[in-house]
Amino acid sequence: MKNKQSFTEDLSPRQILEIDACTQCGECLKHCPVQDVTGNPAVSPPEKIRMFREFIRASDGLKAKLFGPGEVDRKLLEDFTRAVFECTTCGACGQNCPVGIFTQRLWPMLRKEMVKRGLGPIGIQANLPKAITSSGNPYDKPAADRYRPWFPENAKVADRADVAYYAGCTGSYEAQPMVRGDALVLGAMGEPFTMLPPDEEVCCGFPLFITGQHDLLEDLVKRLVEGYKAKGVRTLVCSCPCCVNIMSRDWPAIYGHELPFTIRHITQFVATAMEQGKLRISKELHERVIYHDPCYLSRGVGVIEEPREVLRRIPGLTLLEFERHGLNSRCCGSGGAARKVFHENAIKMGRLTIDEAVKKKADRLILSCPACYAKVNEAMQEHDKQIRITDIMELISSLI
Amino acid sequence: MGTIVIVAAYGVYAAFWIRFLLHALLWWKAVTRPATIVGPLSPSSVKAWAFSARDVVLFWRLLKVNPALWFGEWLFHVSFLFVIMRHLRYVFLPVPEWVWWFQIPGLIAGYILPLSLLYIFIVRMFSVREKYSTPANMVLLGLLFVISSLGLLMVTLFRTDVVAVKLFTIGILSVTPAAVPGSILFLLHFSLVLILIPLLPTHILTAPLVMLEARKRDLGLPLVMHEE
Fold first, then answer.
1. Could you report the predicted ipTM of this complex, rounded to two decimals?
2. Percent of chain A at pLDDT above 70?
């Protein structure tokens, strides 16, 4: 019966137009990282849209209006579900779409439609609500271990401050050199910053949003916003592009009001501090480094220049660019909560990033996303090409 | 045979509007139900409208991602539009002056149209970078090629009685059907158009709106995390 429900209930008017507007030209396939590693057009963006149109026709077409909604073929629904969850939601397809379909937003909403029908999410993604409810994070790790293993001993956290730092779950549990670097750099600025206690700094909601499981979102967002509000926060700094994305784009809608603070990615905050002379780099680094734009930071919220500004301030450093960078960057494979389910795809995509960095003769690959950091490091294990991988704040903290 | 074609024409006409209305209904239902999480909406601006007008008229986004395909697609759509405008002389009685303006350009477009379709087919089939072509797109391409070639044949080698064609189309539109013109080429041309109409992709109507939203989003992106 669930399969007879309308397939458009959770779609916005714009998304309904977008599904109609796809010309099936296939331009997006040239930019799809999943295509790069699978070569399977069945999981491609136009094919997903074509299948979804069939679902809409079955539930809302003329035949459905006259004789009632038809049952959609279960196999087709399963194929679609796999395709939409195999996607990394990097949004490169939309960026290169001749019509301009906002796919980075469309795919998560189509995932939600499948979740509603009990077809998604896939594999361990289904554990996310339970894990987040019990431990506050999608990895189901103890809240007590959220900061302890990496937080610098000499860094001080104020009880109340204008600036707060949100470490995020992936950084705290899977990319600790990165969040340690964040805390060291924030500490070096000499201005107080605050943080929520480890048991109160819960998931930002992004993994739930991206996997179409929206039930807990409101509770999580309200807890976090109220927590920072109580500490008098006016600027919330975070280094995870996925967290920053949902905070800036969706938290106001979920919270129901304008946020009482501004969201800043750590590279924005540090670039401004450097410009104002609050933070100086004291050491030189004579290396060729290449910077990878995280999809949810560049295409997601338009933070492209600031990481480069920060890197350019390092004396002696030569900054290289990937062929596809900025708004057109190629996903490293860790996006869309697909990395733990479609592990092999993610590893192959990560290796494409490594291979290009090595080909460009870079000494170091600079990342600014904890998911990229965790997966690209994993991809390099047992890979024939090797490069030093460093988070941008990990690097800055070692040079101040 | 004539009756079948006339009945089919009314059927296709009705199906076109039903299809259009069902799409509009779907969209209207989405407009009227409580908003889902859609993220911030980008504000409209003169710049966004101007850029999206360029996107719609010149297929600017396609030009940026695939200039080879853009050339064929733009030629096809423009020549198709001119050919349609030329065909309006069969619909109006009397024919307005502005329709006459399109007669010569429409005739030239009639030569370009099948060539542009052939070019698109070659680009899509033989370019190593093309990975995806749906059977539906190929059917549409083939159908348009045959229809446009038949149309061209009727104005060059096998001239059709345009008065009979006009009486026939006016008859259909005024629900007083007249006899189908005797030309077999016309019968084939018209029948294939009837097959084409239900297959016409709805992106013709929705893509311009999506392009406008995309432009607004592009211009609004720097403002998501930066002050104006």
1. 0.90
2. 99
